[in-house]
Specification:
Layout: H1 2-11, E1 16-20, H2 23-35, E2 40-44, H3 50-64, E3 69-72, H4 90-118, E4 121-126, H5 140-160, E5 165-172, H6 181-184, H7 187-196, H8 209-216, E6 227-230
Parallel strand pairs: 1-2, 3-4, 4-5, 5-6
Helix pairs in contact: 1-8, 3-4, 4-5
Length: 237
């Protein structure tokens, strides 16, 4: 989903700084964007590491002088190790929290000063229905991290509203992405997921592109602290 939105931002004319711990994937994305005529760079980043995030923001500012939009998309899900509380290891808890929640905090921590200095900006964070309801009872750390993102979104929105820094969260439903491949490759489970979604289909990365562009743009200037569902109606029932 991050790759799809980065490419859409580039097509809309944005100057893109892509960050990922996976250097091969990040480099491939930037090469694709540059071949299409976009101005974009890749910075290898571990969002759970403060020094790495600081280098990311420093690189973005050195190249483009400002940060107008921060899109916090990085996330991990460990289905065979993320378990009910009494079975969950502290190591898995810390790792998932480090990427999913600490990553959002650190990226915002270092991007916000530039936004305050320039007079505004937009921060978009990826949530999940698992952060709203107990729909993934065996994914304790993941669900908790996504709930934390929604809380972080709202407290930041309130803190920076007068500074014209808007903070919102997109809440995608069951998406056709590699992260969900562990259960979507099972035909019966896939069918069950589709049946549970009012629209009757899985989400695709491109389904969230337009919403991300809207929240990044001045057309959403009165929108902050919001949780924007993009789940085919999953959380409406």
């Amino acid at each position: 989903m991050g790759r799809a939105v980065a490419a859409r931002f580039a097509r809309e004319g944005a100057l893109v700084v892509a960050a990922d711990v996976n250097e091969a994937d990040g480099t491939a994305l930037i090469e694709h964007l540059q071949k299409s005529g976009s101005d974009a760079i890749f910075v290898r980043t571990d969002v759970s590491d403060e020094g790495s995030v600081q280098r990311l923001i420093d690189s973005a500012l050195a190249r483009y002088k400002r940060i107008d939009v921060l899109y916090n998309n990085a996330g991990v899900l460990l289905p065979e190790r993320d378990l009910p509380v009494h079975e969950l290891s502290s190591e898995v808890w810390d790792y998932v929290m480090g990427v999913n929640l600490r990553g959002c905090f650190l990226c915002a921590k270092y991007a916000v000063p530039s936004m305050l200095k320039q007079g505004g900006g937009s921060i978009i964070q990826m949530g999940s229905p698992t952060g709203l309801v107990g729909c993934a009872p065996t994914l304790t750390a993941y669900s908790t991290s996504k709930s934390g993102i929604m809380g972080l979104t709202r407290v930041m929105a309130a803190a920076y509203a007068r500074n014209h820094v808007r903070v919102n969260s997109i809440v995608p439903g069951t998406m056709e992405t590699p992260m969900n491949g562990y259960f979507l490759t099972d035909g019966s489970k896939r069918a069950e997921c589709c049946q549970a979604i009012p629209q009757g289909r899985l989400g695709k990365p491109e389904d969230i592109e337009g919403l991300a562009v809207f929240l990044a743009s001045d057309e959403s200037s009165y929108c902050t602290g919001g949780l924007y569902m993009c789940d085919g109606g999953l959380t409406a029932v």
